[in-house]
Amino acid sequence: MPAVQETVERVKRIDVDQYRYGFETLIDSEKAPKGLSEEIVKFISQKKNEPAWMLQWRLEAYRRWLTMTEPTWARVEYPKIDFQDIHYYAAPKPKKTVTSLDEIDPEILKTYEKLGIPLREVAMLEGIEPKVGEQDPAQRKIAVDAVFDSVSVATTFKAELKKAGVIFMPISEAIREHPELVQKYLGSVVPTSDNFYATLNSAVFSDGSFVYVPPGVRCPMELSTYFRINERNTGQFERTLIIADKGSYVSYLEGCTAPQRDENQLHAAVVELVALDDAEIKYSTVQNWYPGNSEGKGGIYNFVTKRGDCRGAHSKISWTQVETGSAITWKYPSCILRGDNSRGEFYSIAISNGFQQVDSGTKMIHLGKNTSSRIISKGIAAGKSQNTYRGLVTAHRKATGARNFTACDSLLIGDKCGAHTVPYIEAKNSSATFEHEATTSKISEDVLFYCIQRGLSQEEAVGLVVNGFVKDVLQQLPMEFAVEAQKLISISLEGSVG
Amino acid sequence: MALLEVKDLKVRVEEREILHGLSLTVNEGEVHAIMGPNGSGKSTLSHVIAGKPGYEVTDGQILFKGEDLLEMEPDERAAKGVFLAFQYPVEIPGVATMTFLRTALNAQRKARGESEYSTPDFLKKVREVSKSLNIPQDMLKRGVNVGFSGGEKKRNEVLQMALFEPSLCILDEMDSGLDIDALRIAADGVNALRSPGRAMVVITHYQRLLNYIVPDFVHVMSKGRVVKSGGKDLALELEASGYTQFEDAA
């Protein structure tokens, strides 16, 4: 059988049921009744003991949302979502107020252990730390905020971060403890009226992470949030707000998983980043939501709004994403380059297999003078999936000297999938320099045979070629994540050929 | 001892028969040259031995160390010691040559139930071999064959041959695209690998290559069959009289 034919056969038999994180955790939880109304918004706000201004903010968003319609311009197809058939709030039932990790429901801790997430900072603090001079970079400390369904269950290394002046806590706590910061910045990058899903999120978000890095501080460790959807019929609407004050630096990692379920689950998050003068934010995501089964049943609908504002001069925001999960991905981490000489970067690996649909990309909005941006996007489509890169690069009239470089590469595995590139480029002044490069290639049978002749199995050969294809982006990830992402890429493509 | 036995092999590509009953026996330690005009089936033979998809064997047998080669997957054949040096080695962007060598070598060792090489042992081995082939270390850091010259690509093939230590090496048109100096370096590398336990099948159009890699036997192929076999002098004879005399014999 010719290899092409063989590949096609294998792709037909593709099985994306190999999702590793498809287990469910049995814990008592407290859920809001299904559906959305002002009462539900009030219920969520009340559950969170929020101040009146926050409730007001939510209600305004909710009223706005009622007037909006779902966007349909993306290259994704799915049955209409019944927004009244979703629980907008679910929380593990608190036994009492949690003050240390030991008081967290052991079932939840076990879940995170299964996911390989180090919530137990205790172990690291008590003598397992590498000695000075022999620090293993793979064992660097990472502060973790774990969000289980709608609620943040644990944040580690709080004390150590506090010493450096860094605030890292669930946003629900920040609303109570640092209202001046939250009020100043929440919604300042993604306004409540921004888009259908962001507005919905503004009305009902229940938790997420809040980070503030004070002027001149280099955050002493990687900050990380792991999101886990557990409950049935639950939407997860987390909200993340990161502020890097003048001259500061922070690197933030985000990981996502969910149990295997037949029904689709909605995930509509909002992430806002603000970088003031000379500040830098590096935001990395490894997204591995449940992608649905081999018939395309179930999976997460991932409608996410992520945007960074390079508000100050010489500021820099860098997005790196490895997208392997979700049934539908609708996601465009963007940068508003407001400050003069600011820089935005977007590095993306988007892998789709089975029946997954990905419509992802970025927006680089050049407003300040001499702003620059760089987009490196690697899309890999296998199985019967559709993978679209959608990007906007625009230079405002006053953004003299704006520069962008874009490279979009797509790799196809098999002949039942599709890769699409939809770039929008607008320059409103003549001094802007925009470059766009795009390639689409099929994984060549000759390349595979060469590798196999040297002793690699078909699957190893595909893994090797794909890892070579995405190398430029993997290098942008913090080391701990790069290794994980590399493994994830191989797992996501298992069964796509031989 | 017979290492490779091809018996009455018939091969089709998309309904068209390319090999019409080819037989060839290669013993350990021997170097066989296969010559013949374009379209005589030389490359088809090398591809079928290596297991390249797209060829249908309709009759005949290939035994390798007495085992049925056609029953094995191409990667199993590699692990058993079949190596094909490609006429046009492919480029693999983003995969460092060193990474590729190590991944392939360890995959073969694993398939044979041997332990994987440790990093220092592996590096030591690669350095030794690449030095003897005049391959600079920074070439090993570049993507596999990416931006390599014709000569570098062929040396990279010989490097792999030396590292993997196969018992059967098939060299498909190794001289194509090489100038005399590059050809000499590659051929010296190949000659260094000649050993009593290893056999080679050298496929070429031209006698030129056989000045550098001197064969024990020469076979002339025409229209999908071996039409004449002889010693190394047969190649010289062919160079003088051309292939046309065999067209009718086939």
From TrEMBL, chain A:
Spans traversing the lipid bilayer = none
| All residue ranges annotated as the SUF system FeS cluster assembly SufBD N-terminal domain in the record | 159-218
Tree of life domain: Bacteria
Q: Which GO biological-process labels does this protein carry?
A: iron-sulfur cluster assembly
Q: Where is the SUF system FeS cluster assembly SufBD core domain?
A: 227-469
Please give the family membership noted in the entry. Answer: Belongs to the iron-sulfur cluster assembly SufBD family.
Descriptive protein name:
Component of SufBCD complex
From TrEMBL, chain B:
Functional note:
Involved in beta-(1-->2)glucan export. Transmembrane domains (TMD) form a pore in the inner membrane and the ATP-binding domain (NBD) is responsible for energy generation.
Identify the SUPFAM superfamilies for this entry.
Answer: P-loop containing nucleoside triphosphate hydrolases
Q: Which protein is depicted?
A: Component of SufBCD complex, ATP-binding component of ABC superfamily
Top-rank taxon of the source lineage equals Bacteria
InterPro entries given for it?
A: AAA+_ATPase, ABC_transporter-like_ATP-bd, ABC_transporter-like_CS, FeS-cluster_ATPase_SufC, P-loop_NTPase
Keyword list (alphabetical) reads: ATP-binding, Nucleotide-binding
CDD domains attached to this UniProt entry: ABC_FeS_Assembly (cd03217)
Family statement: Belongs to the ABC transporter superfamily. Ycf16 family.
Where is each ABC transporter domain found?
A: 4-248
Q: GO molecular function: any one? A: ATP hydrolysis activity
